[in-house]
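Final report, results section. Input specification for complex C-07:
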Amino acid sequence: MDGMNNNFVNPQMTGGYNGPGGPTGPVGPTPKQVQDEIKRTRHTWEVPMYIISIVAGMMGVGMALLQFLLDGDMMAGISEILESGSLDIPGPLLFVLLTFGMSMLAIISGVTMIVLTLVYIIIVLYQLYADQMSYSVKVSEKNYPEIYRKAQEFTMLLGMKKQPEIYVQQMNGQLNAYTSWVFGKPYIQLNAEIVDVAYLEHKDLESVYFIMAHEFGHAYLHHVQLKYLFWSFFANFLPVIGPFIILPLLSRAREYSSDRVAQALMPNNNGVEAMLLLIGGRHTYKYLDADDYLERIKNDHNAIEYFARWCTNFLSTHPIMPFRIEALRDVRKRNGRMI
Ligand SMILES: [Zn+2]
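Structure output:
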């Protein structure tokens, strides 16, 4: 077990990481150091892909609108009127009237569509938040106090005005976590299956903290915002390139950036063990050897198999695990591999 751990995670860190001014252990980074490190290590594709996704979203709005206007019976009705010649209006005037009418219809339809989409997204966001209030435990000074204190420390280091609320919910075995947002606050769900590793045989708070730090990264870098959800909703209307190229590329860059935020918050934990937890599960991950894991994946397969895996990564919202682990282990913290 320690073969792997000694290689990548400082075994001294089991007691958690003390922030600046902490009573014991290593002195942590200052907020400025953390925030500078995040700027330096943010994936360079992230912001350009975000801009491209906004452009795609704008084109998607246009396409959705066009589809709405052309799909209905309205166009057929107009051409029927024109062909019948029943309107006693001179041709040029009719053209102006029709152009004006169509423009007004497009504007009204466009505004209605945008408002309805925003309402829909807001309803979905509050539905998700209601799920926390209905089925999760809110992390507090009494419930999961270690996690609460670590969240306070991350908030301070990131200079966030408001501490994200953290919720724990059992998810029938799924090892996962996510960040979302409602008006005025981001919040984080840690699946209980993740939190369990702090209480099971390994007493591994470090991996829980790393996963939470990654989620703080999403909140800190504003990855979950109404405007992002809005544009990505409409980017899906661009056939193929929206849902299968642009949005997954943006998402993968964001995952790498959030991993770097976690590393900046926890400079003595590179996060590889947290990834092994996601791959190997809560009991055996401590016994896995990351070198062998990467070695086997690099050398045991033929070109067709690698191409199949390349496709898996290309279509995925998260970088596949070997790419992600290689990025986490890169001491120079360069861009993770996107394709
Ligand atoms: Zn993530």
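Residues 214, 218, 255, 258 surround zinc ion (CB under 6 Å). Strands lie at 137-138, 165-169, 177-182, 185-191. This concludes the modelling results for the funded period.
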